[in-house]
Amino acid sequence: MSRSRKPDWLKMRPPAGREFTGIRETLRDHDLNTVCEEANCPNLGECWSGRNGSGDGGTATFMLMGDRCSRGCNFCDVETGGMDALDPNEPANVAEAIAEIGLDYVVLTSVDRDDLPDQGAGHFAETIREIKRRHPGILVEVLIPDFQGEPDLVRKIIDAEPDVIAHNVETVERLQWPVRDRRAGYEQSLSVLEQVARESDIYTKTSLMLGVGEYHHELWQTLSDLAEIDLDIVTFGQYLQPSLTHLDVERYVHPDEFDTWRRVAEEEFDFLYCASGPMVRSSYKAGELFVDAILRDGKTVEEAREAARSVASD
After folding, report:
1. What is the per-residue DSSP string for 26-38?
2. 250 Cβ partners below 8 Å, 6+ apart?
3. 189, pLDDT greater than 70
4. Lesser CB count within 10 Å: N end or C end of the chain?
5. How large is the average pLDDT for residues 102-106?
6. Is the CB of residue 278 less than 8 Å from the CB of residue 236?
7. 54 pLDDT higher than 50
8. Which of 283, 304, 302 has its CA nearest to residue 293?
9. What are phi and psi of 139, to 5 degrees?
10. How far apart are CA 68 and CA 79, in angstroms?
């Protein structure tokens, strides 16, 4: 199935443009990684060459703690094993790069670092704090590992006070294996998201891939489970096989079906918003969609920042 011809709606434009080139050069200057490049994101050209929802530079998702992961998920193109020591300068380098690119909404993610005593939670939290210290008005979204479900490590991220905490369940419960590494799991991921919702007013977010063999009733059940733990934001995207050694694509989901799931998520389950489409990934237009969701009455960007921090308690 994975070798079949991709439908027209999955055709991508190659990355180009002045903004794209500028972001790439800034990242190289600061020796930084992005999940956009390491995971071969299909939206790299669009996001880096575009503008974010608040009017400044293009969107990039910074990948912390190196470009090699301690886990081997069967859908992911990030290299496994051979992790390096953490770079103590990375939090400052990320903050400086953000200023040079000109962002007021930034996304941070990381590889899994099960090899470290705290699995990298402290380094992740330090980066959030450094960004907030240098850029007090910035909105920070983080896409975190599960930290093996350890509440104290999840709490380190909560205490750093990002604006959005995302953790991806990736797929329905039945397909966690073979899609994800065996150290991951559906209930473990739900527990991370539930803890964030229970212990803070920080927005929560998760993403699922379609086309790996899931059934419609399983997607409905997953949305129900996510609503039960008070999740705020969900996204759906098409799984694309990075190489012939990765998980096969079971089917290419039509854009109309993605739109149906968006309506189900927003209208039936009342999520804050649902980004859903073949090319959608977790951080796809993250700033634009988040700001739009809390600014439906036409407030300014400055008012958006304040709204993002107060809407949960209104």
Report:
1. HHHHTT-EEHHHH
2. 1, 211, 212, 213
3. yes
4. C
5. 81
6. no
7. no
8. 304
9. -100, 130
10. 5
How many residues in the chain? 314
User: What is this structure's pTM?
Assistant: 0.85
Q: How confident is the model at residue 23 (pLDDT cuts 50, 70, 90)?
A: low
157 pLDDT above the threshold of 60: yes
Q: Which residues contact 204 (CB under 8 A, 6 or more apart)?
A: 164, 165, 166, 193, 196, 197, 230, 231, 232, 233
> Domain map of the chain by residue range?
8-313
Distance separating alpha carbons of residues 70 and 82, to the nearest angstrom: 8
d(CA 192, CA 32): 27
132 Cβ partners below 8 Å, 6+ apart?
A: 138, 140, 160, 161
E strand or H helix that includes residue 236: strand 233-238
Q: Which CATH architecture has domain 8-313?
A: Alpha-Beta Barrel (3.20)
The two three-digit tokens of residue 122, written as one number? 């402290």
Region 40-61 average pLDDT: 50
Distance of alpha carbon 159 from alpha carbon 200, whole angstroms: 9
Q: What is the pLDDT of residues 224-279, one digit of tens each?
A: 999 999 999 999 999 999 899 999 999 999 999 999 999 999 999 999 999 999 98
Q: What percentage of the chain has pLDDT greater than the value 90? A: 62
Query: 171 CB contacts (<8 Å, ≥6 apart)?
Result: 179, 180, 208, 209, 212, 214
- Who's near 92: CB < 8 A, 6+ residues apart? 130
Tokens of 222: 């997953």
